[in-house]
Amino acid sequence: MDYFPQFFNFSIPADKSHPLLPPEIEIRHTATKDYSLFVVSDIPTGTLLFCESPLVTINHDSTPLDVLIQKSLSVADPHTIRCFYNLHNAHHRWNDPSYILTHKPAIQAGIWLTNCVLLSPFTSAVFNAVSRINHSCIPNVELEWSEDRQLMGVFAKRDLAAGDEVFRSYFEEEVGHRLVQVRREYLRGGWAFECGCKRCVNEAAYWDWKNKPSVPGDNEDVEGRMGSAD
Ligand SMILES: C[S@@+](CC[C@H](N)C(=O)[O-])C[C@H]1O[C@@H](n2cnc3c(N)ncnc32)[C@H](O)[C@@H]1O
After folding, report:
1. Which ligand 1 atom minimizes the distance to the CA of 34?
2. Is 85 contained in some domain?
3. Residues 7, 99 contacting (CB under 8 angstroms)
4. How far is 93 from 13, CA to CA, in rounded Å?
5. Nearest CA to ligand 1 atom 4
6. What is the rounded CA–CA span in Å between residue 35 and residue 182?
7. CATH number, domain at 32?
8. C-alpha span between 129 and 83 (Å, rounded)
9. Whether residue 11 has pLDDT greater than 90
10. Distance CA 170, CA 174 (A)
11. Is the CB of 35 under 6 A from ligand 1?
12. Domain SET spans what residues (predicted)?
């Protein structure tokens, strides 16, 4: 089955409610990162926030990525296709439905690379609600894939307070131990965005301050901010 512009409604999820999320979790628009998930009540460490099955899954072999995506979408139902095209695309900006007819593979690959999660060394997937979770170098949730149930669980890694934004880490733990410059380069290269998490902003400010010739009385701001977290 192929898809046409009339399948798409460009109204990304309405603020607050999302069909896959429990009432304790809301989707909201943010000033700098487009959409994001927030908790509306206190949630203790280890709690399962929600779980979700994949929207689209790909088994990787030597076939080019765009061909694999096209193949998976060709058997997807219209609702899945609409959800897929509503996801964020950090690699390929577009907002004109007719654009899809000429730039389809690039748009699909852009959405895939912006949102995909590895389920195993040879399988990746894109999820509808999990895709709205932004990255932080101090994540407060973690993902756990259940192969038996074919479900992705989102678990609180720390105690969450009502109003907290939900963040996961887009990279392996060892990258999280590296300097801000390395972490940002990793996300720029692989994910096409400049990390604006509080840890990166604070650490980058520290390095800016450390690398510039010292001026008396110039450093209170940075030293004061270094202790805060997401
Ligand atoms: C998987 S999506 C996350 C949800 C996305 N904000 C949305 O509106 O659907 C990844 C995109 O979110 C944004 N993003 C996620 N974490 C970010 C961060 N720490 N700093 C800046 N932008 C971030 C980037 O545009 C990135 O390409």
Report:
1. 8
2. yes
3. no
4. 18
5. 132
6. 25
7. 2.170.270.10
8. 10
9. no
10. 12
11. yes
12. 23-171
Tokens 């400010």 belong to residue: 205
The residue among 139, 143, 183 whose CA lies nearest residue 164 is 139
Which atom of ligand 1 lies closest to the CA of 195?
Answer: 20
Instruction: Tell me, yes or no, whether 35 lies in a domain.
Output: yes
Number of H helices, E strands in the chain: 7, 10
Residue from 217, 223, 163 nearest 37 by CA? 163
Q: Based on the structure, what is the number of domains in the chain? A: 1
**Residue 165 domain-assigned?**
yes
Identify which has the larger pLDDT, 210 or 163. Answer: 163
| 18 contacts 86 by C-beta, under 8 angstroms | no
Structural domain of 75: 5-173
Cβ 230 under 6 angstroms from ligand 1: no
- The whole-number pLDDT of residue 5 equals 42
229 occurs within a structural domain: no
CB 139 within 8 A of CB 167: yes
